[in-house]
Amino acid sequence: MSSKRNITIIGGGLAGPLLACLLAENGNTVTIIERRGDPRALGYEGGRSINLALSARGLQALDRIGIKQAVLDTVVPMFGRMMHDEQRRTVYSPYSHVADEAINSVSRGRLNCMVLDSAESMAGVTLAFNATCTDIDIESGTVRYDDEHGCSQVLEADLIVGADGAGSIVRQAMDAIVPIDEGTDFISSGYKELTIPAADDGSHRLERHALHIWPRGHYMMIALPNSDGSFTCTCFWPMEGPESFSAVESPDSIRDFFAVHFPDAVPLMPDLVREYTENPVGPLGTVRCRRYHHGSTAVLIGDAAHAIVPFFGQGMNAAFQDCLRLAESIGGHDDLHDALVDYDRTQRPDGDAIGALSLTNFIEMRDKTASSTFLLLQRVRKQLGLWFPNLLMPRYNLVSFTTIPYARVLRIEARQRILIPAIALGVIACIALPILWALDVI
Ligand SMILES: Cc1cc2nc3c(=O)[nH]c(=O)nc-3n(C[C@H](O)[C@H](O)[C@H](O)COP(=O)(O)OP(=O)(O)OC[C@H]3O[C@@H](n4cnc5c(N)ncnc54)[C@H](O)[C@@H]3O)c2cc1C
Fold first, then answer.
1. Ranges of each domain in the chain
2. What does pTM read for this prediction?
3. Is domain 6-75+107-184+285-362 in CATH 1.10.3720.10, yes or no?
4. How far is the CA of 398 from the centre of ligand 1 (A)?
5. Cα–Cα distance between 364 and 86 in angstroms, integer?
6. Other residues' Cβ atoms within 10 Å of the Cβ of residue 337
């Protein structure tokens, strides 16, 4: 059993408070430093996606801190993808053959408030809002921050946790001592959020229990349902080029572009031009990091360690899985250095794997979900998966509906690439050979 530590977490977003709950449960003293105001008092200030897909890994962690059911009570389950083509036709494809298997659209702001409430209710947890970490001495465990009055404060800790997102100041401080930061690989697409408001009677204007996708080759739009009847749409488009954010800027070009490429969405978006013009374009990239800890004094979780492109809906889920593993490692080792080495050994391959899987899914959602060959292959895979559920579970389901480590998912998928054609051939042979034999052909 481990001794009790004094731990400072930089970042009170999604992962920081969840980790605080787990660490406080083991008797550690935890302080969270968060540069934004308290979202429970102010209303959520986040400028990024306002709903997120929550799946098995995230739910497992929420279960551990006792709020899984409370969170599930607020979500909209999405049981499949609804594809929209340029002729306004739709095709629905369920995620799973298991009836109640769904990913869940959850409000980022509400979830953030719920994990903060949980952290605050734990003995030994202190939350500091409007507190911006400005300087870190990694070796001594010293954190400097500007408090809500602009006064500089100092905290000493046994361990500093970087839960401070993709631009992590903790990662930078670690990298300044021993280079670990391999940089951020930005993709050429960015994202912009738009809204489909609820109908006058408060209902959803599109199928409520689906993730909607308008795949258009090198660009796409998706929409996730909110519990208030609205949808949050996200355009994932190239930054530059003929069909890109830079090409679609004027009110006329916005109206024309949407009318041609997303014709069924336009009547549902009364504020399209204003929202498109006012809402920012966010960059998308993968953070690559050679090590998740420095000695026994600093460690990274979530986006600070492995920000990923959001096409598998796994960033938060992966961050929550980090929290479980880190708390387990700290709880299971007397020596903090051993604990952090253990965490790095198990989590870093998974961070790398989900980064790679998310990039693959970007190509799949953007380029392939509109292809009838792809949809047919998906159906074949799904059917084989039905016949051999343990052997041939599809990649999406392994990622979203299990907690199997991401690195193992990659290995399973590599095996399946060999197995599926072999099994498909076997099945065809089993059907064709008796027929040919009965017809006296062989
Ligand atoms: C468009 C988009 C869609 C997404 N969709 C999904 C999805 O469907 N499902 C999913 O699982 N994930 C999704 N993600 C990813 C998800 O948002 C992140 O992986 C998740 O927020 C990571 O949590 P975190 O706690 O590590 O970081 P964050 O949520 O970014 O929190 C970091 C916190 O640190 C604070 N901070 C930063 N610097 C300092 C400082 N110097 N001092 C004090 N505080 C500081 C910030 O204010 C912030 O509150 C999406 C991301 C994007 C961009």
1. 6-75+107-184+285-362, 186-283, 372-438
2. 0.93
3. no
4. 23
5. 18
6. 12
